[in-house]
Amino acid sequence: MRTTYLFSLFFLLFFMGCAVKTPPLEQRQAKVLNLQNMLLHLGSKVDVYEAKDLAKRSVEHSYFLAQKYKSIDVPWLQNTLVNIGLKKRGLCYEWAEDLLHFLIKKHYRSFSLHVVGANIGYLNEHNALCVSLKDKGINNSILLDAWRDSGDLYFKRIREDKKYKWKERKGLYKVFTTKRW
Questions:
Q1: 117 in Cβ contact with 172 (< 8 Å)
Q2: Phi, psi dihedral angles at 127 (to 5 degrees)
Q3: For 73-86, b where at least 16 C-beta lie within 10 A, e where not — what string?
Q4: Are 86 and 8 in contact (CB under 8 A)?
Q5: Residue 85's Cα: distance from chain center in Å?
Q6: Structural domain includes residue 12
Q7: Total structural domains in the chain?
Q8: CA–CA separation, 115 vs 99, rounded Å?
Q9: Does residue 119 sit within a domain?
Q10: What pTM did the predictor assign?
Q11: Which single residue of 2, 88, 136, 174 has CA 20 to 30 Å from 47?
């Protein structure tokens, strides 16, 4: 019992040194501009102000969540710490849920947000968000994955993401958006 406790304490203290640091303002601004440009290229009907706002809020809130979760650099290790009870939140679906809840408050006219999943039902299941033109499906959308790089928002055209094969999860969208906060 004592050995288990000491090992757990060592494990926790060792990996707390791997905490995610928020990058400098210039790097964050460059990331926002990149995402904004991708959003603008979704179609001619995209509102420039909304693209800028959505990009900034997505990038900045992902860093905020990393601080809130006291996230560490290695996502699977973050999951382990949550699953054994040493951390309260930080699983991929929680990142997606919290980011979605934050973004839907703006009621964007140009965009629709979608909850997506890969490897659904398997041990390596992964959940994230994507953004598309209003009322369009996920096929021509941009993936927003805050979990993958521990709060440093990963974004890419969903069809270009070679790591996962994404499917829309309409049921989770309803669950995420109807929770009482």
A1: yes
A2: -125, 150
A3: bebeebeebbeeee
A4: yes
A5: 21
A6: no
A7: 1
A8: 10
A9: yes
A10: 0.85
A11: 174
DSSP per-residue string spanning the chain: -HHHHHHHHHHHHHHHTTB--PPPHHHHHHHHHHHHHHHHTT-TT--HHHHHHHHHHHHHHHHHHHHHTT-BS-HHHHHHHHHTTSSS---HHHHHHHHHHHHGGG--SSEEEEEEEESTTSTT-EEEEEEEETT--STT-EEEESTTTTTS-EEEEGGG-SS---EE-HHHHHHHHHS--
Q: Hey, what amino acid is at 84?
A: I
Integer angstrom CA distances of residue 150 from 6, 8, 49, 80, 154: 27, 22, 27, 14, 9
Return d(Cα 84, Cα 92) in angstroms, integer: 16
HSE (side-chain half, CA atoms, 13 Å) at 11: 13
Q: Is residue 41's pLDDT more than 90?
A: yes
Cβ(169)–Cβ(117) below 8 Å? yes
Among 29, 74, 72, 80, smallest CA distance to 52 is for 29
133-176 per-position pLDDT tens digit: 998 999 999 999 999 999 999 999 999 999 999 999 988 777 77
Closest CA to 80 of 1, 23, 143, 14: 14
In a domain, 17, yes or no: no
pLDDT at 150: 92
Residues spanned by the domain of 52: 24-178
